[in-house]
Write a structure and sequence with these properties.
With about 350 residues, the protein is an alpha+beta fold. Helix content is about 20%, strand content about 25%. The protein contains 6 helices and 16 strands.
Length: about 350
């Protein structure tokens, strides 16, 4: 049975530093727009996998509106969008296709051009994260949905924080970006990427989360002691980029042993998922390693690591952006989210700020 992407126009609650607000469908989004960026567009293809070899085949099957990533082209058409959802989006922004931002709490946001420029509007709560449905079920591998683990797959050994497992394929900047700074060891909060004065000079006073993420931050420092980025997707799934040079010795293993374990888990997951060199998962993984290795050998590229789900840590809450009560929007571009970094790797000066 085909899963359609739908949006329920129910209200949602957002927060500033001193109050909460109930936002109705069709109302302007009163806080920073943060989350994963998707695109609704026409697509006349889908992907099927050959039963014996797991080779992907692009199938022409008529033009349909789908929502997905801008990556992998024909291999990432995403799920079909229901006609009711298309009508709801059109009623808010005036047209049907175009960008949609989805927050980790499943809130769908769209942009509309008003008299004072582009503004974000709240649509409603989505039924599925499009990234889980980029591809059909991976044959022979229950719990894994094509490129990405399904929400039920956290029990698989290569996705658990204890195993420091492979995060199968999310491209750069997928998810809501956060920074774990050095001072988070004593003050367990997450902050926006970038230097704080870069926001303050634009009039945006943004605050870190409450100090409620000590277990999450410890898990991060256990694998990446220098601090840096993490990304939170819909449903609270957390992933990070990791270079070999980021790893430090710990009480149980030295850095080389830790990296060897990560590589073993990564390659093991790839072999369990598919033997096809043309599988989108393999393509995406190889593209990531090549793009991040610089002028060095391939093993100096970044591994995408699944840190766990927010439910695994602390009181299980998804990080929430806090801004001052007098927050004024500084970004009015449909292709951006506030707090989106220019570079997906934080520098030492920023991490120690």
């Amino acid at each position: 049975m085909t899963t359609l992407f739908t949006i329920n126009p129910e209200p949602t609650e957002v927060f500033t530093s001193d109050r909460s607000l109930l936002v109705e469908s069709g109302s302007m989004w009163p806080v920073p727009i943060r989350g994963s960026k998707y695109m609704i567009r026409f697509s006349d293809y889908s992907v099927e996998y050959l039963p014996e070899t797991d080779e992907p085949q692009v199938i022409q099957n008529g033009e349909t509106r789908r929502i997905g990533m801008n990556r992998l082209k024909e291999f990432s058409p995403g799920p079909e969008v229901s006609e009711e959802t298309i009508a709801l989006i059109e009623s808010i922004r005036g047209w049907k296709n175009g960008p949609v931002t989805i927050t980790p709490r499943g809130e769908a946001l769209v942009w509309r051009e008003d008299e004072n420029g582009w503004n974000p509007y709240y649509v409603g709560i989505v039924n599925v994260d499009p990234i889980w449905f980029q591809h059909p079920d991976c044959l022979g591998h229950p719990g894994v949905n094509g490129l990405f683990p399904t929400p039920e797959s956290s029990g698989c050994q290569w996705f658990t924080p204890q195993e420091w497992g492979l995060w199968t394929g999310c491209m750069f900047k997928t998810g809501e970006p956060w920074t774990v700074r050095v001072r988070a060891r004593e003050q367990p909060c997450l902050t926006w990427p970038g230097k704080r004065d870069s926001y303050s000079h634009r009039g945006l006073i943004m605050l870190g989360t409450d100090n409620i993420h000590s277990e999450l931050i410890k898990a991060y420092f256990d694998i990446r002691p220098c601090g840096g980025r993490l990304y939170v997707m819909m449903g609270g799934h957390i992933w990070i980029n990791l270079r070999k040079s980021n790893i430090r010795d710990n009480e149980e293993m030295d850095a080389d042993e830790i990296w060897a374990k990560l590589r073993k888990n990564t390659l093991g997951a790839l072999r369990k998922l598919t033997s096809s060199k043309n599988h989108p998962l393999t393509q995406m993984f190889n593209a990531r390693m090549m793009a991040t290795k610089g002028d060095g050998p391939i093993d100096e590229g970044c591994l995408p690591i699944y840190l766990g789900n927010c439910a695994d840590f602390d009181i299980g809450t998804i990080p929430v952006t806090r801004v001052t009560a007098n927050y004024k929007r500084s970004v009015r571009r449909p292709d951006m989210i506030e707090g989106d970094e220019q570079n997906p790797y934080s520098n030492r000066e920023e991490r120690e700020e």
